[in-house]
């Protein structure tokens, strides 16, 4: 496979407002602002190689997101600082039935869930610990996404979680966490992959489909990128070469 991860995309009613929240919370910056997207970018020292992209949509959020971010902390006081900062910026606490756990579940100003983790050695670098994807079959999902990203499996927790990590050993993990909820609506958070410059987009799309992706018919105008679904129906885009 020639594709690589390039974006984590979040649907938003007010993209700039949501981008400002995440930029302030993570200590990143708004790098691109256009009518159809706002991009938040990490400093090079953070190790995060993707853009956090906010795009305008008319639909309101209906259900818990199947993809969310876990934020890293370096100490219990740092965890408390992150929670306090998120609440001051417009976030709120969320009860998903998690019970007594050492991490804190929050939502951003548009209701997108995220977690602020207690200190863990595995997540010692960068503001974002992991991109977490709900999965009925974490092993199957990890196998598919490792083919698309080139990220090898770096962690397993029984049949509950499989984590992929960039070969550089920097930046966030991509983790597949067992969850039996049934997907009922289009995801508000999705991943973008892209082939490198100089390659053929159609050929890359064919490779991704051969790896187990399926077309996703979302209606609307023809686009230069291709919208597909992974083996559990999560939408993602194969962008043009870059």
Task: Give a written overview of the molecule.
By secondary structure, the chain is of the alpha+beta class. Helix content is 19%, strand content 33%. It is built from four helices and 16 strands. It has helices spanning 15-26, 76-88, 138-149, 201-210; strands spanning 4-12, 29-34, 37-41, 51-56, 67-71, 92-93, 104-107, 113-116, 128-135, 153-157, 161-164, 173-178, 189-194, 214-215, 226-229, 235-238. The strands form two sheets. It has an eight-stranded mixed β-sheet. The two termini are 15 Å apart. The model has no long low-confidence stretch (mean pLDDT 95).
- List low-pLDDT spans: none
Distance between the termini: 15 Å
Strand content: 25-35%
Shape: globular
Individual helix count: 4
Q: Main beta sheet, described?
A: 8 strands, mixed
Which structural class do the helices and strands define? alpha+beta
The radius of gyration over CA amounts to 17 Å
**What oligomeric assembly is this protein in?**
single chain
**How confident is the prediction overall: mean pLDDT?**
95
Order of helices and strands: EHEEEEHEEEEHEEEEHEEE
The percentage helix is 10-25%
Number of strands: 16
Main β-sheet, spatial strand arrangement: 2-3-4-1-13-16-15-14
């Amino acid at each position: 496979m020639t594709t690589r991860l390039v974006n984590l995309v979040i649907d938003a009613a007010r993209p700039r407002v949501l981008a400002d929240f995440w930029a302030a919370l993570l200590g990143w910056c708004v790098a691109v602002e256009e009518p159809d997207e706002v991009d938040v970018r990490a400093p090079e020292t953070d190790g995060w190689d993707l853009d956090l992209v906010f795009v305008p949509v008319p639909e309101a959020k209906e259900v818990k997101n199947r993809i969310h971010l876990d934020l890293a902390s370096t100490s219990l006081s740092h965890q408390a600082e992150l929670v306090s900062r998120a609440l001051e910026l417009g976030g709120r606490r969320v009860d998903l039935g998690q019970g007594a756990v050492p991490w804190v579940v929050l939502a951003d100003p548009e209701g997108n869930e995220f977690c602020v983790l207690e200190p863990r050695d595995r997540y010692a670098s960068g503001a974002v610990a992991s991109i977490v994807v709900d999965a009925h079959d974490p092993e199957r999902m990890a196998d598919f996404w490792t083919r698309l990203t080139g990220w090898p499996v770096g962690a397993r927790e029984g049949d509950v979680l499989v984590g992929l990590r960039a070969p550089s050993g920097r930046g966030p993990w991509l983790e597949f966490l067992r969850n039996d909820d049934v997907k009922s609506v289009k995801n508000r958070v999705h991943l973008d992959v892209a082939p490198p410059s100089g390659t053929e987009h159609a050929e890359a799309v064919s490779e991704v489909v051969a790896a187990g992706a399926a077309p996703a018919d979302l209606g609307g105008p023809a686009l230069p990128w291709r919208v597909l679904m992974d083996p559990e129906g999560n939408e993602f885009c194969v962008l043009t070469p870059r």
